[in-house]
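QA checklist item 7 of 12: single-chain prediction sanity check.
[x] sequence parsed
[x] length recorded as 188
[x] structure emitted
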Amino acid sequence: MELYVGAGEEGTRQQIHLNDLAKTNSYEYQGLPVIDFYTGATGGLPVARAKYNPEHDAPLLLFTKNSEGSAMPYRVLSIEDSWQKQGVGTYQLVNLSSKALFWKVGEERFKIEPKDLRVIEVDGTNAKTPVIALEVNKDGKPSRVYRAKWHNLENMRRLIFVRDTNENEVGSVRVSVIEDFYVPPSTP
């Protein structure tokens, strides 16, 4: 999807390309911590507004569709993506779904509320980390919505995104895992 970033309807806009379920290129931005996204280089409709934390060294903006009748078609969540703050051996779990999820990652157990996130560190020396996610239905009974064993490498971190399924998908949530690998900068 092609969008345009600008400071209001009258300012100059920069074109950006958004990938579906994958990171895009990095873009330089200087300005207020509120970013407006439009459908056109001039004019066009506003489709999203992002408010990012200026303390983030490398904000990663996540676009999710809003429900019908919302002021803008997309909602934007800003998370930290800096290697200095979310380094090797971290799992950043982002719950974009409409339900609370109960996780067991390795031996750690925790709950992530809807539209919230949690960062955990794992022992990357173990070959695999078992992962289970549960939801609780209306009757209070837990049911498993995700199970996996993730392979670990010493130079890797993971971003995990959980979203609700649509009418064409089976189950209640979809889990997307992005594996990032740290490559130290080369010295001349």
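[x] summary fact logged: Residues 17 and 135 are 34 Å apart (CA to CA).
[ ] second reviewer sign-off
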